[in-house]
Specification:
The complex is a heterodimer of chains A (221) and B (235). Chain A is mainly alpha-helical. Chain A is built from 7 helices and no strands. The chains are: A mainly alpha (221), B mainly alpha (235).
Amino acid sequence: MKLSWWKWLTILLLLYTVVVGMLSEVPRLAILNETIRNLYFHVPMWFGMILILLVSVVYSVKYLRNPLSRNDIIAYESAKVGILFGVLGIVTGMEWARFTWGEFWSNDPKQNASAIGLLIYFAYLILRGSFQDHQQRARISAVYNIFAFAALIPLLFILPRLTDSLHPGNGGNPGFNSYDLDSRLRVVFYPAVIGWTLLGIWVVHLRTRLEVLKQRFYENA
Amino acid sequence: MHLCCTFVEKLEEVLLKEVFYLMQKDFVLEWRQKYAFNGMLLYVGSTVFICYLSFSLRFGGLEVPVWNALYWIILLFTAVNAIAKGFAQESRGRLLYYYSVVSPQGIIVAKMVYNAALMLVLSLLCFAFYAVVIGNPVQDVGMFLLTIVLGAVGFATSLTMISGIAAKAANTGTLMAVLSFPVMVPMLLMLMKMSKNAIDGLDPSVSLDEALVLLAVNMIVVTVSYILFPYLWRS
């Protein structure tokens, strides 16, 4: 099996995240207790989602500048992987919230913002589905992708800061940085972010190759 | 350098002229087809009346948060319906004609300004009717009107672009709602907060944050639409 270096890196980082994340010492905190280990799984999902959606938008811009079907495929596949990360982030977050805040859904602005963000990308999928013509589909969904991303940014970064949130770092809650993201957590957290994001890129890479091959197959068939 | 400046000035002049003529065309069309505008008025009126009946308001008014939320939701649906027809109503031949004579930037700016004017009229009339039928708890009317202006402009600008996108696809009606709602929610939340402050008669400085964010979001939406519309227009 021949894999390029970054794929080996992904495997190593994720193995490290799971093994060390589950076994290492973590700060003992009231309420959070052992669930603090979810930091290695829940938070990287959001980092990964934002980064992969950014890839999607960049390729949408690229498509508008240079309409190659490869650019469109990458934009589409990374939007789908971004949605997958978003759903996983919401599920892991809801599970965590059930244990620490008491409810699966506590009307927290960040929870709501992420749900709306997902709605935008579901709408993107619906929009793609309603075109017959390939070129038109690619161009118009690229336009919507960029438009929606520009509308999502203020949503995800500005809104939660204006209202009180149960998340750390908002509404009088101390941020993870201030006391409990101590060096023991950082040692696993940063590799976890890189590992999960690389995994997302790997999936996009595979899906893109598959789609390009499919297209070539249909063209020659 | 001098040549370049005059060129840019000339370009701006041409764009302004285009926007002006296109808007004039939209207003004249609206005036000639008064039934469409009257239809929107009736839509607003009957929605307000249905709300009045279904909350059975003969005994006492609505609570302030409900009043506020209901007003903005009525306005949201009105906006989606009013603006959806913006691009859909134009016939294919006419679109081709525009394509050959004016720049896409001119079209999107003209449509946005026109839709903003339309939404402004509709939302003010909606407020008047709503206040008469359901009651008016607003303490700071000036601030509330400012919120309505910001809201109407915000709805109009973001929905104009979305209606352009939805008009190209097969099921325009559903897509219009599905594409626009998530994009509009942050705007809607800001507006509700700001209008709640106005209803409670809080000092205007409390709403400054929301007003600035709304303005910023509007600017982003307008800029992005201005840049992206030419790509949409080409297909």
